[in-house]
Amino acid sequence: MTRSQSTIHGPILELRKLTRTFGALTAVNAIDLDIAEGEFFTIVGPSGSGKTTMLRMLAGMEQATSGDILLRGKRINDVPANRRPTCMVFQSLALFPHRTVGQNIEFPMKIRGVDPAKRKERALQLMRQLRLPENYYGKNVTKCSGGERQRVALARALAYDPEILFFDEPLSAIDYKLRKTLERELKDIHRETGKTFVYITHSLEEAMVMSDRIGVMQAGRLIQVGTPNQIYSTPTNRFVSEFIGDVNVIPVHIGPNGKLISDDFAAEFSVPKIPVGFTGGHLVVRPEFVRFLGSGDASENRLTGRVYNEYALGSRIQYQVRVGEAVFIVEKLRQQAYTGGLDDEVAIGWSGADSILVSD
Amino acid sequence: MEAKQTNWRNGLVWTWSLAVVAFLYLPSVCLLLASLTDSRYFTFPITKWGLSWWAKTFNSLEIHALFKTSISIALCVTVISVVIALFGALAFARYEWKGRSIYQKIVLLPIFFPQSVLGLALLLWFNALGLDLSWKSAVFAHLVWIVPVVTLVISIQVYSFDPALEEAAYDLGATRWQVFREVTLPVLFPGIFSGMLFAFLLSWGNFPLSLFTTGADTTIPEYLYAKMVAGYTPGVPVLGTVNTFGAAFLLLGGYGLILWWRRSRIGDSKE
Amino acid sequence: MAMLRQPGPRNAIPLMLLMLVGFAAPLLAVIGFSLVPARSFSLWQMPTLENYAGVFSGTNYISFVYSLVFAALTVIVLAVVCYPVALGLVRVFGKWSMFMSLLFTIPLFVSENVRLYGWVLFFIKNGVLLGTLKTIGIEPESWLFTQSIILFGMVYVYLPFMLFPMTLGISMVPKETRDAAFDLGATRWQVFREVDLPLSMPGITIGFLLSFVLAVGAIAEAKVLGGQRIIPVTHDIEIAFTYAQNWPMGSALSVLLMLVVGVLVLVVLRRFDLDTILGKK
């Protein structure tokens, strides 16, 4: 059951044919998107996909070449960043090195002319909320650890009391373990504050953990928008399916008999239904849906090859199976591990219903 | 074995470098010695030690006037050059713009130019414009050379400045002026301070530009030169020593201040 | 006009105006004066090349050659003197590095003729050196007023201008790259030739250029230490402007000097990306 909050609230942010070009390069190409009030929306894409440019346009730091940005139905293209009720947490965090933790958090309130006692009260309250010790109020930000700096940056953004928070890959420079903790904390803060979060990252894994919905960007276009589950289980094209992680993406075409033929594996594959007009594309098979077949086991799709190597991935083990020159990957839970030796001949198979056919 | 070899090599580098330092400061020591004699001409070993030339120099009205001229030029140059160079450095290192790389090279040109020729060129130019030469024209001449130097000094600080700091402040509601006052200026301050020191000291010690552009006014380096070429007095080593120690004092003091500052900023302020 | 609304060009305006009025215009004035008949003091006359012809038919070209040769020699001596020091500043002095750099910076701010005068007091008859030698009974000739002491003085004055760019260059060589080269079997000399030298070349080249250009314009060394044993081109220029009252001749000499310097600077600087050298992250 997915909680897509877009069904509960109207959109807070609407993008209409939003475009940004730099000379001959179209960094963001006619994007249409609605982001719902209170939603945690993540834009995922490789570097150079235009996601940062898009976020900077939403925050008001980059001018749109054409198209509209609507905030609660009002066009805000020409409202400068300092007058938009939105706030960004930067990749570098952009904490003011000449200010203490407290002064950093109070900055937006100072700019707004809030009196010092109230400022301090609110800053301490935010520090409590973000689990920063109270005695950090007078600490120099440059002396804080990575995780602490992260929290200060978030506290400073929240002190602005924005309606939407933007995040520009703030966790990309943080080591794995701390990143996992901070991802969860960020999602908790999202729940506590009820604000709309728009997050960009190049890691789909990170997006999956936190987001209500994910948009996948490639070469300036939003190529798929959906819940984490939708993105994971039904990628609409080859790019999205490969972006998710280790999957088998097999080039296929329609043979004279109307079946899918793979030249690489010199085999025929079957799926429940081939869409009308499909002539060629890729068959996506997730490694966890593939089984090692015993001698008597039947399978809708079947290949024989040799186990070339195995890789332990935490709770699962991944196997590289070589079928002729071609490589196929299989993943099993540790308790269902493959028991044969390397270079042994094995048969593998999967159900056609577990594979996805994409047309590009 | 390897460590021993490295130690030996490092020792050699240290020895050589200290010898170069000694080489750099030997003339200053000679000046100091020459200023501490009471006789009219300098002979070594010194037979009559004394401070009488220091007293004479400091009481001389002529020297007071020279000081006033030199200080006026140096202070004007410092203020004007830091303002121009701060903006110049932002254009040099902070913003991406078409023509920036040409601009960077134009900024360097006066530094890579013989100063005596630049001084003469300015003399010709002032003359062609029909300007009267005085310490004010020397201020302008100094600026042509010192502004580029100060721009480079501040640029080095600007390069390490994260532009996202300005964007963040702007995003948090600050106006352009508030961004400049609250973020840009304080973060760049160490660079601006070094630039001020450089501007003051370079102007104070400049000879080739002053020579051609001060007109009837005389700066201390010009006076010293005149006295060196004709009419030595022990006032020359006195002033030379004052200049050297003054520069050392300002520079060491200034960098001491920056270090102290940085340390006090890093040390947590008490609640 | 639209361009001036961008922050980059807008911030560059004051400096560019200064360069226009204080650098480009005076140089144009010099070029203008070099084209008017000898001994005139006004720009508005029939242009002529007689001053340039005069430079090559007279003896002025000799001082030109002297200046170039002495500048080249200065650069060579400085390269040898400064390299170990620059190496020390980057890799050996550690926490003393900052203090050592300051020691090398301070003399920059003392007028060069004052510092050269210290050498006069050192080398002069009955000065610090000869006076000391006299007490132990040795009385050699003074080194002052010879050709070689002029070179000595130039090396002394321009040392920081070689040292600091060189230091910057050497600091651009990452330690890991050197370690990798050692690890791949290179000898110390090979590491120097294959890694250190090419990677620190931008800084070293700028040091060469800067000290050469400044040394070509040197004047005080010959006057203060050399007793005019050598007449550098800058001295000829000054004479033309002052005693000889021949501005066009002085201008023609200046233009030739500017040409040498300008071509050299432009050719060398063209090759460099200043952002990388000055430490853009």
Automatic annotation (TrEMBL), chain A:
**Pfam short name (any one):** ABC_tran
Q: Which domain of life is it from?
A: Bacteria
InterPro entries, per this entry? AAA+_ATPase, ABC_SmlMolc_Importer, ABC_transporter-like_ATP-bd, ABC_transporter-like_CS, Mo/tungstate-bd_C_term_dom, P-loop_NTPase, Transp-assoc_OB_typ2
GO MF entries: ATP binding
Q: Which UniProt keywords apply?
A: ATP-binding, Nucleotide-binding, Transport
Residues covered by the ABC transporter domain: 13-244
Is ATP-binding a UniProt keyword of this protein? yes
This chain's protein is named: ABC transporter ATP-binding protein
Give the organism's phylogenetic lineage: Bacteria, Pseudomonadati, Pseudomonadota, Alphaproteobacteria, Rhodospirillales
UniProtKB/TrEMBL annotation, chain B:
Name the CDD domains for this protein.
TM_PBP2 (cd06261)
Keywords for the protein's UniProt record, in alphabetical order:
Cell membrane, Membrane, Transmembrane, Transmembrane helix, Transport
Give a yes or no for keyword Cell membrane in this entry. Answer: yes
User: What InterPro entries does this protein map onto?
Assistant: Bact_Polyamine_Transport (IPR051789), MetI-like (IPR000515), MetI-like_sf (IPR035906)
What compartments host this protein?
Cell membrane
The protein's matches in SUPFAM superfamilies, at most eight in alphabetical order, are given as:
MetI-like
Q: Which domain of life is it from?
A: Bacteria
Q: Which PROSITE patterns match?
A: ABC_TM1 (PS50928)
Indicate the family of this protein. Belongs to the binding-protein-dependent transport system permease family. CysTW subfamily.
What name appears for this protein in its UniProt entry? ABC transporter permease
TrEMBL record, chain C:
CDD domains, alphabetized: TM_PBP2 (cd06261)
User: Residues in domain ABC transmembrane type-1?
Assistant: 64-268
**Sorted UniProt keywords:** Cell membrane, Membrane, Transmembrane, Transmembrane helix, Transport
Transmembrane stretches, start-end: 12-36, 64-86, 116-137, 149-173, 199-220, 252-272
Just give the chief location class. Answer: membrane
| UniProt cross-references to InterPro entries, sorted A to Z | MetI-like, MetI-like_sf
Q: Which Pfam families match?
A: BPD_transp_1
Q: Where in the cell is it found?
A: Cell membrane
- Family per record: Belongs to the binding-protein-dependent transport system permease family. CysTW subfamily.
Q: What is this protein called?
A: ABC transporter permease
